[in-house]
Amino acid sequence: MTQATFHLQVTPNKRNQRRLHHLIDQLFNDYSKLLVVRLDLYLGKDYADVNTYEYMNAAFDRLRNNMRFNRLFEHYITYTARIEYGSDRRWHYHVVFFFDGQKVKHDYTLAKRLGRYWINVITDGLGGYHSANMNKSTYRVFAVGMVLHDDSQGKANLKEALKYLVKEEVGEPVRLDAAGKAYRSYRQGVYKPRDSRLGRPRQY
């Protein structure tokens, strides 16, 4: 696989970067292949009056809670995400979902279904989404999608591509909630590694 070149200069938060890389390494210790789906989740511009940090966090929590009962997430493993504020989309989420690549193959279709679920169910028609998995031709090196455990360059590209999730908010104002606490921007799903005695599933 070609080594990726990333032009966006990002200074990562070292602690969160270590957490992210540890998670990715754990996943590849347990799975022979991962299907990685990246989504940007936001609200339409016409709904700026309801686009608050609290609303977006509650919506994302609904999404996570619904995973347990929805066949769309049948082979879902875990996630990592970042919420941030921008002048265009206001509060929005960058989310990366990890699925078992032995069980799920078509990242374009899965990304589209996840995006439509965000729009139609989670936000009741207020939301919008963008997925790198549905726009592969715009990337010289596509770093998400199906990644194999023995593809060292693919794993390195994945870690580099996800660096934006753990970037330092240098120069950005510190945003405080109603209790005066700084907003948490980075989130990472809980993952319990498999029993090491079981070994990694056979790749096919």
H/E element order: HEHEEHEEHE
Largest sheet: 6 strands, antiparallel
Mean pLDDT: 85
Number of helical stretches of at least 4 residues: 4
From the alpha carbons, calculate the radius of gyration and give it in angstroms.
Answer: 17 Å
Q: What fraction of the residues are assigned to beta strands by DSSP?
A: 15-25%
Structural category is alpha+beta
Distance between the termini: 19 Å
Name the helicity range. Answer: 25-40%
Shape: globular
Low-confidence stretches: 1-9
Strand count: 6
In a few lines, what is going on in this structure?
The chain is built from four helices and six strands; from the N terminus they run αβαββαββαβ.
SSE blueprint and pairings:
Elements: H1 14-30, E1 33-43, H2 53-66, E2 76-86, E3 90-100, H3 107-122, E4 127-131, E5 145-148, H4 152-161, E6 186-188
Antiparallel strand pairs: 1-3, 1-4, 1-5, 2-3, 2-6
